[in-house]
Amino acid sequence: MIAYVTIGTKDMERATKFYNALFAELDPGIKVLMDAGRIKLWGKPGAPNLAVATPFDGKSATVGNGVMVALAADSPAKVDALYKKALELGGTDEGAPGRRGGEKGPYIGYFRDLDGNKLNAICMK
After folding, report:
1. Res. 45: pLDDT tops 80
2. pLDDT averaged over every residue in the chain
3. Is residue 65's pLDDT more than 90?
4. Selection from 30, 29, 72 nearest residue 51 by Cα
5. Closest by Cα among 10, 19, 7 to 89
6. Contact 71, 122 (CB under 8 A)
7. pTM for the full model?
8. Helix, strand, or coil here: 100?
9. For residues 29-34, average pLDDT
10. Which of 17, 54, 90, 101 is the least buried, fewest Cβ under 10 Å from its Cβ?
11. Domains in the chain, please, with CATH?
């Protein structure tokens, strides 16, 4: 259903470094599929992707209140690693990794990127 999600950045070079390193931690198969200068698209062909862009209208990128992108991880250890990598890259904590909704709930770690966009790493196992 979802082809891609776009979030904004004020600094494409800085965002590119952040997401290249973050996605290398998540899955080395995730690559830049499109680079059109003001917008880059990361992912794998045929799967949902993430685009990062400077706004088309030329105004500053802002964070949407209530907007969050969830990155699928295949294990709680991968959630831990992705969360740790995000913070090492200068991202900020929005909720340490752990089970949500009880001992059988999803394992999730929340963080923000360098522009303040909220993301999480989630393992449904």
Report:
1. yes
2. 95
3. no
4. 30
5. 19
6. yes
7. 0.90
8. coil
9. 97
10. 101
11. 4-54+68-123 (3.10.180.10)
